[in-house]
Amino acid sequence: MPGRSPDRTYAVDRDAAIRSMDGAALAGVGRYIMVSYFGAGPDHGVPADNGFFAYAEAKAAADAYLRGTELDWTILGPGALTDGPGNGLIDVNPADASGGQETARANVALVAAAVLGLPSTSGRTIEFRDGTLPVAAALEHLS
Fold it and tell me: What is the structure's pLDDT at 61?
């Protein structure tokens, strides 16, 4: 994250995340939900001199590692997090940024809880932002 040292960012957002995946696998935990961010991936496009670069790289590496595990995983890609109140309304896989890409942390928590009970979300990356559909209805459209 901007303002955090790159070493600390890699230690937390890549290395610790990977250790938690390995620990979950060793413990026999099947379901694993990763909170990443909207646009994460090796082609994130964040310039190396940007304060967000280490975070983007760390998340790309952790997400890729998770995809290679035997865990029953879902990766969540919320838009820019806000502390505003969640309203339970999201847009899933929005095609453009015209409506903004902000996502209340409370809505992220609602989505994380919802996907735990939806086997159809396993092996998927779900990008979303605050939006217009109730969480359950938005996730149903993924099938």
Answer: 98
